[in-house]
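#random but structural
TW: two for the price of one
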Amino acid sequence: VVMMGVKKGVEKVSKLMMPVLLILIVGISIYTLTLPGAIDGLIYYVKPDFNQFSIKTVIAAVGQLFYSMSLAMGIMITYGSYMRKEDNIESSVRQIEVFDTLVAFLSGLIIVPAVFVFSGGDENALNAGPSLMFITLPNVGAVFFLLVVLAAMTSSISLMETVVSIVEERFHWKRIPSCLIVTGISFLIGLLSVFGYSIWSDFTIFHMQFLDFFDYISNNIMMPIVALMTCVLVGFVVKTTFVEDEIEKNTRFRAKGLYRVMIKFICPICMLLILFSALFLKL
């Protein structure tokens, strides 16, 4: 898909895969709720329990937000560079926020009730992390694997497009050789996650399997650091007007004041809290 380029490859495939992905999420969530014991999971999911609420909960949610919104990994910057001058950036951001939140909520309707069903109502099973994908959730059925494949494909295409575009520009290589090299490297690194749940399952890093460790390092360490550096760069080096002028080329930037405060002060503080939590609470 990435070899075919942005318009003929990424754009065409995304227009097909994303609607199918959404239909599958809705269908599987409805099916999951029909399973015996699923209603207990639904109640646990939607009913607030403020006794369980803490700053650690907020930090964990923000950490998950990075991957969900494709932040601090170059994807938004890469795709943003492909936007047309007449596109409304602020409106596009609003659409991304709404659909991302909707899909996240629907995904929760699959995951939480399914865990309750297949763990006998054990709340602690929800803390299994990425291993839920391979141990608990496959019990939902074969269609779940189709959902996982589509979700993985859309994420992989985005991530690969970002890396390939960087390789193309940095080394002045053509798209096909760049794709082949990136694919080869990704395949070799990916084997660690594959074997981490099979022949190398006894080997752990900080008591985590390879996949769990990679997930932890990327979501809770690398991405907050990149986000923090981005906030410093945009807020204090190139200044927020650099982004504001781009947005206001064809519309009024209604959230300009909030944007400045978030980039300069709120987001950097949040990034430091996430890093502190990841380094001193997890390890």
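TW: number two ↓
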Amino acid sequence: METKIHDFQISILRELLFKPGARFRDLKKVDITNDHFTFHINRLVSEGLIIKSGGRYTLSDIGKEFANRID
């Protein structure tokens, strides 16, 4: 992936690596507006890194590979 990943997005990926099936409120660990956080979540969904199903978020296979390489 050549797209620059924002720090907020990295924190979401890390959280999902250890808490698959997390809800929005479980992932929002930073003090930003819900709209701003939703933007970052939606960006990860559109990049194919996370999947939303039934109000819960999990890493896609590509997202798992990507999250495992974050240092």
